[in-house]
Design a protein that fits this description.
about 290 residues; mainly alpha; Arc Repressor Mutant, subunit A; Four Helix Bundle (Hemerythrin (Met), subunit A); 2 domains; two-stranded antiparallel ribbon; 13 helices; 4 strands; elongated
């Protein structure tokens, strides 16, 4: 590849890769060339020059640039042309994953559904694990209170499927937000929604499973509160694996009176709330003794 020459207000170049992969999508070829030859924020050549240098038809180039713009890789500026973005566009990333989640969730055959859910779960484990680790480093008091409140809400909604699922998702979203990383926040939210679409809520919300999930959430909160980043990440990874197993496991019986008594006790403890994690752990310990 020949050396780039910087002209006033515009980058120009003579050629790109000599022998591009014929099976490679043209938008990927365009993106590879742009990112190798320009820095974030740089203005790229006009459509006519770029098509000539890439040896690609202008309709295909126009389509590629439009797709790259939708993905947040380039941006069009008024009276300034097209530039490489200086940082990722979270909204564009979210749009791409909305499409991915919709495609996976729309599968109707059992093997495809199972495989699709595993794809999302694998990505979710990585994203939420990283978010928990960052959250332990960068969380604020407001973040801790928000995570704690989501656990309160989970306890109050045990037995109400729709409300409980919303509270469960809220917990995970609060953990993502504690990382204070906009891309992780939006990306994780989309993945959580896609993951929830693939799990039978009636099984996940059965009281025995719900109590196990709440116990996991308490431990995650405690690790984030104590700023134990590796511990927080490990707990999230283990928790998401437990959810996957719980969705397949036959619900366990739970004595109705014991469930009501524990729920009442939890609410009483929460109302006093001298110390979030200590009060929660006392109750979950008593829950285990009755199981």
């Amino acid at each position: 590849m020949k050396k780039l020459e910087k002209m006033p207000g515009l980058w120009t170049f003579d050629c790109f890769a000599a022998s591009p992969d014929p099976d490679q999508p043209h938008w990927i070829r365009v993106w590879d060339s742009l990112r190798k030859n320009f820095s974030p924020g740089d203005r790229i050549p006009c459509e006519q020059d770029l098509a000539k240098d890439l040896d690609i038809g202008r309709p295909k180039l126009r389509e590629a640039l439009y797709l790259l713009q939708q993905l947040g890789a380039v941006e069009r500026r008024t009276r300034s042309g097209t530039h490489l973005r200086e940082k990722p566009d979270p909204a564009a990333i979210a749009s791409a994953f909305v499409l991915l989640s919709s495609e996976i969730a729309s599968e109707t055959t059992a093997p495809a559904c199972e495989k699709g859910r595993d794809w999302i779960r694998e990505v979710r484990v990585g994203v939420e694990g990283a978010a928990a680790s960052l959250g332990a480093k960068f969380r604020t008091e407001e973040d801790l209170h928000a995570i704690e409140q989501s656990i309160h809400d989970q306890v109050d909604t045990i037995g109400t499927i729709r409300d409980w699922v919303m509270c469960d998702q809220r917990f995970h979203q609060r953990v993502l937000q504690a990382a204070h990383n906009e891309v992780l926040d939006i990306l994780g939210g989309i993945i959580i929604a896609g993951f929830a679409a693939k799990h039978p809520p009636h099984q996940v919300c059965e009281p025995p499973v719900a109590w196990r999930i709440i116990q996991d959430h308490i431990a995650i909160l405690e690790a984030i509160d104590c700023q134990k980043d590796q511990r927080a990440q490990q707990l999230v990874v283990a928790h998401l694996s437990n959810i996957d197993e719980s969705s397949r496991r036959k619900p366990l019986p739970l004595l109705e009176n014991a469930s009501r008594r524990l729920l009442s006790q939890l609410r009483e403890e929460f109302s006093r709330r001298p110390s979030t994690t200590s009060s929660l752990h006392r109750i979950t310990a008593s829950r285990r003794s009755l199981s």
